[in-house]
Specification:
By secondary structure, the protein is mainly alpha-helical. The protein has one domain (5-221). It contains ten helices and no strands. α1 (5-21) packs across α2. The radius of gyration is 18 Å and the shape is globular.
Length: 237
């Protein structure tokens, strides 16, 4: 779909605001709702851009995770809060936490709801590369009912980015600048993909290499260096 220069600017602004909102916890709910509405409208009008942006961001972030991090190789059934159990506290089966209780836990609230259908498959593809992610999300979109196609695309796009951000934050904390810079960079890269020019790996790979984490980082957050101590504190309200 052809859009004007002014529309392209408005779209870029919307996605940049969404990215900033993922970093700013004090953004008012009403503002988030407005940004989400515009994000979904642009997804309806220009799905190729959304698909390229979201899968590219997720692929780039996942590519920085330690080689042995299991999130680099999602398995069938991935996409629930239990997938965080290697790096943070999760309740035992007999604890019977419901969603409302989960939303009070500061370590798990972001994953209180499972990934939407199809998102885990797309995230696994992103772990193999941006192009694989694009192909898979496009395939999921094409197989969706016409009335739900745009909504499902937007839901999966946001989910794979947010889950990737959460995993990276486990290692580097909220002040890590790499994910935000990558979300901004992919605004230009996604435009290139939309125009048929392909993923510019020569621009992306050096940044990913610089931000790459090691297996030592994974052992540290997973508590493998000290078996007597859990890797993360249990923080709830």
């Amino acid at each position: 779909m052809e859009i004007t220069r002014e529309e392209a600017t408005a779209r870029r602004r919307t996605f940049a605001q969404w990215a900033a909102g993922a970093y700013e916890p004090f953004l008012p709910i009403s503002t988030r709702v407005d940004i989400d509405r515009r994000f979904r409208e642009w997804t309806r009008r220009t799905p190729t851009f959304t698909i390229a942006w979201a899968t590219g961001v997720a692929a780039s972030i996942l590519d920085t995770l330690p080689p042995n991090d299991p999130w680099r190789h999602p398995t069938p059934g991935f996409g629930t809060w239990r997938d965080a159990g290697d790096v943070t506290f999760i309740p035992d089966e007999e604890d019977e936490w419901d969603r409302q209780r989960m939303l009070l836990d500061l370590s798990l609230a972001a994953m209180a709801d499972p990934m939407p259908p199809g998102a885990a498959r797309v995230m696994a593809a992103c772990a193999a590369g941006a192009e694989d992610g694009q192909f898979t999300l496009t395939d999921v979109r094409n197989q969706s009912e016409a009335t739900r196609r745009d909504m499902r695309t937007a839901d999966i796009a946001q989910s794979i980015v947010l889950w990737s951000l959460w995993r990276r934050r486990i290692y580097r904390g909220a002040d890590d600048e790499f994910p935000l810079s990558m979300m901004y960079s992919w605004l230009s890269y996604a435009l290139m993909v939309e125009d048929g020019r392909g993923v510019p790996h020569e621009s992306i790979d050096p940044d990913v290499f610089t931000a790459a984490l090691t297996d030592e980082d994974y052992r540290a957050v997973a508590g493998m260096d000290d078996e007597s101590e859990h890797p993360a504190r249990h923080l709830d309200i």
